[in-house]
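User: Design a sequence. Structure:
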């Protein structure tokens, strides 16, 4: 039996896009041991996916090295294009280490491949790694099963906010990687008001560290606007989005969570390329502008209405 490690991406959206790779590895090697090393946010998603035998929480670099060496992995797949994480795999003692030769790290890997061209969707970036290991790529979109406990937490959050299941439009104004990817808070607030005028229940959803952003949106809205997510982990937030009628999000983790639970999503793109990172797996409408602030609330409302009509 081979013991195999997947070093997971750092961000929620990237983690969602890695789910087909992990499914493919498990399908090709059902008898082998498979572990995922991940930060707490992505880790909740891999636990819910239920494909890995173990999800190892990321800690400090030294603690991670010790944890991996103790498990004696035969093979490590380093998904992020990070020198530091390739060094971690090298120091883990795994004799085979797969990944792309980015960030001057090729010498740390035994199966380094040239970095993909970046002309296809990011989901397909992992295909060459899989093929090089004799693993057929999984062509299906990311999918997240919702555990019963997470569904119960989501139901409680919706009930506390007086939001009916499967009726609310959930607005996700955050972007963990850069403020340049955020549609302005006043535009989210204006969209919330347009939804209220049409009698559509709506809420803001953010992560536990993003209360200030939620308050910025709520403070600019002319009508009461519930806030969800402050006490939820990533899979519990996914469970909330699974019970939404539609999601409006920046190019960020919640957009990919919505796609993975088959909830329609309007995605706002600025400096990033939707051909590379648009969510997959659910009906999607992309609004793209180099300067995000030039997308109006009326444009977003039209995109929302278009998707709502498609879902009826």
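Assistant: Done.
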């Amino acid at each position: 039996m081979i013991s195999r490690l997947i070093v997971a991406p750092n961000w929620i959206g990237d983690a969602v896009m890695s789910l087909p790779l992990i499914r493919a590895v498990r399908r090709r090697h059902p008898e082998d041991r498979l572990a995922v090393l991940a930060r707490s946010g992505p880790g909740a998603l891999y636990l819910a996916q239920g494909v890995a035998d173990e999800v190892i929480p990321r800690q400090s670099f030294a603690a991670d090295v010790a944890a991996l060496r103790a498990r004696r992995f035969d093979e490590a797949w380093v998904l992020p294009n990070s020198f530091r994480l390739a060094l971690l795999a090298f120091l883990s003692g795994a004799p085979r280490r797969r990944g792309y030769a980015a960030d001057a790290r090729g010498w740390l890997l035994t199966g380094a491949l040239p970095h993909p061209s970046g002309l296809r969707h990011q989901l397909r970036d992992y295909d060459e790694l899989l093929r090089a290991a004799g693993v057929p790529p999984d062509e299906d979109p990311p999918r997240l099963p919702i555990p019963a406990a997470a569904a119960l937490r989501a139901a409680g959050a919706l009930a506390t906010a007086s939001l009916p299941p499967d009726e609310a439009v959930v607005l996700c104004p955050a972007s963990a990687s850069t403020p340049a990817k955020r549609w302005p808070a006043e535009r989210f607030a204006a969209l919330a008001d347009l939804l209220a005028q049409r009698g559509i229940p709506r809420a803001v959803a953010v992560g536990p560290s993003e209360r200030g952003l939620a308050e910025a949106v709520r403070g600019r809205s002319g009508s009461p606007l519930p806030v969800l997510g402050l006490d939820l982990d990533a899979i519990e937030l996914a469970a909330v989005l699974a019970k939404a009628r539609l999601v409006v999000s920046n190019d960020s983790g919640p957009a990919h969570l919505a796609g993975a639970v088959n909830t329609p999503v309007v995605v706002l793109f600025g400096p990033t390329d939707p051909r590379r990172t648009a969510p997959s797996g659910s009906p999607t409408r992309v609004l793209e502008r180099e300067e995000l602030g030039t997308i109006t609330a009326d444009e977003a409302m039209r995109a929302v209405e278009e998707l709502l009509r498609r879902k009826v």
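The chain has twelve helices and twelve strands. The longest strand covers residues 33-38.
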